[in-house]
Design brief:
By secondary structure, this protein is mostly helical. Helices cover 43% and strands 8% of the residues. It contains 5 helices and 2 strands, in the order ααααββα. The chain has helices at 3-6, 17-21, 27-34, 43-51, 68-75; strands at 58-60, 63-65. It has a two-stranded antiparallel ribbon. Strand 1 and strand 2 form a beta hairpin. The longest helix has 9 residues, at 43-51. The mean pLDDT is 82.
């Protein structure tokens, strides 16, 4: 009996960018959303900006989460 026939196909849900942008995300995910891979700053830079109050974050317990839309507005203001 074929093993492939016994296991159903796995489906992967793909999130669109606008779905991700309306959620709170961790620092690594935020950097992946906002910056291209070849010019992405490090996580330490993000944490420094967060600690200095230059980007907004939401604390839940001891963890900090970020809203990509609010961070984008703080980093790249439209005048």
């Amino acid at each position: 009996m074929n093993k492939r026939a016994m296991h159903p196909k796995k489906t992967i849900k793909v999130m669109k960018t606008h779905d991700i942008a309306t959620q709170l995300v961790d620092g690594k995910t935020l950097l992946e959303i906002l910056f291209a891979k070849n010019c992405r700053p490090c996580l330490r830079w993000l944490r420094t900006q967060q600690r200095e109050g230059k980007i907004p974050s939401t604390k839940i317990g001891r963890l900090a989460f970020l809203d990509p839309d609010k961070v984008r507005q703080a980093l790249f203001p439209q005048n």
